[in-house]
What we know:
This is Recombinase RecB. By secondary structure, the protein is of the alpha+beta class. The chain has helices at 26-33, 41-60, 79-91, 169-182, 209-217, 236-246, 259-263, 269-275, 279-288, 345-367, 380-393, 398-406, 413-420, 429-436, 447-458, 462-487, and strands at residues 70-72, 96-106, 109-120, 126-131, 137-139, 145-149, 159-161, 163-165, 190-193, 199-203, 293-295, 308-317, 321-328, 333-337, 372-376, 410-412, 421-423. A hairpin with a 5-residue loop joins strand 3 and strand 4 (126-131).
Amino acid sequence: MTSTAGSGDAASPFLIRAADLVGCRFRLRQRFDHPDYPAPPDAVARQEQVEAGREAVLRALPAPGAGFARVDIAPGRDPEQAERATREAMGTGAHVITGGVLTGRVGGVDVVSEVDILVRVGRGRYAPVMVSNHRVARASTSGSARFVPTSRLGRGAPVETGARLRHHTVDGYRLALAHLLLGELADGRAGLVGQDRTRAYVLEPARFVPALLSALRVPVPEEPRRVKQCASCRFWPLCEPRLCELDEISLVLPGGRADGLRQRGIDTVQSLIDAHVGEPSDLARAWRAGIPVLKRTGAPSRVPRADVEIDIDMEAYLDQGAYLWGAYDGEVYRAFVTWQEVGGAAEEANFAAFWEWLMSTRSRARAEGRTFAAYCYAAGGENYWMKSSARRFGGVDEDEVAAFIASEEWVDVFAYVRRELVGTDGLGLKVLGPVVGYEWDDDGIDGERSVALRRAARLGDEEAREQLLRYNEGDCKATRAVRQFLAAGAPGVPLIGA
Ligand code: SF4
């Protein structure tokens, strides 16, 4: 493997971006060594989403004219040309500059900042404004934040609102980098536009500078290590063979899970097998033998059963809202879905219909003297959106939702799976599907892809709608299949340590 990139490497011909400083740092080396390596469709779809968000903000900016100067730097130029154009535009005192590029040396590293918008803030100083796909603020009755409407950037003053800002590391790095590269032209303030494209929240980028400088000091690793991100990384076809060649322990214990073992000199799968350190060594042996899951006990699961059992799965669009609540009762799959925009009346009506159906199913069971339970696989998302929907829309009683979530009638199957099984590649529903003999109708639709499908579905794409419904139905049925498999004592799964 060639060794060309490196933060802090004075001879490096590469420009480091803020996004290179979060997540897997080996990706930077791969990006430099294989700049044209193709991105997978999911990453392309994600990038399109980012671009669409940026376009929406740029369209909202004040139009030039009547003494208001706006300069749009043409995309696709090399960084040197683009930077020259950006600095020229600042030199002429443009009120707003879009698509700006700044380069320089920060913390001994050659860096580049692509600044979505530069806003002149008096005395020839500029504030960088970045567009993020994160939710950067939440409404709050106790907190306060300032924002400038994006339609008033360069023209209006900030206004106060009841909100709390949410921090995302990469957004902080982007703002801090642009702030530092502006040098004497920096105003000291910055703006961040999140999923609400109408507001640029005002921040002080200097507070993110220490973290940015620390991140720049971290050396770029010589070799890959498997992390969660690998599952969606375009370089996986390059990294996986290398990890196998190294017999890297992260193939079995990804992320930081092997840190303690590494300190003891155990850094390969084989050395982990030979170390006989209990469960990790058993897992390593299973991985080597191609066995995805082991069980901790031979006893059948104690996942609660009921006379009426409903398996539930929800789909949300980013963190903007939940658009699909699916429910399977063992015979019929029901989809409560809206293809309209989330966050408004359509989502409210859809959630209310789902909730009404769920509660009336429970009431009917009780009236007939039968027990009732609803199941879900890893309930974090469902719990969040049930609570959030009740809180945001008001049509459903928040207390009733909270009581249901806390009750024994709402069962998180994943909690039982974790207690009883251990997996060499995690215990996600998609990992367990083949183990329990469940097959989805569509291959390869994960959460990321579902976001892209949802966008197509919103635009009326019937095939995308059907695919999303099949995907959700599959997850509901797989949840049922997993708990039935557990109840049967996980047949065919070897016992750990056996
Ligand atoms: S595949 Fe994994 S190790 Fe390789 S660059 Fe991507 S995230 Fe990093």
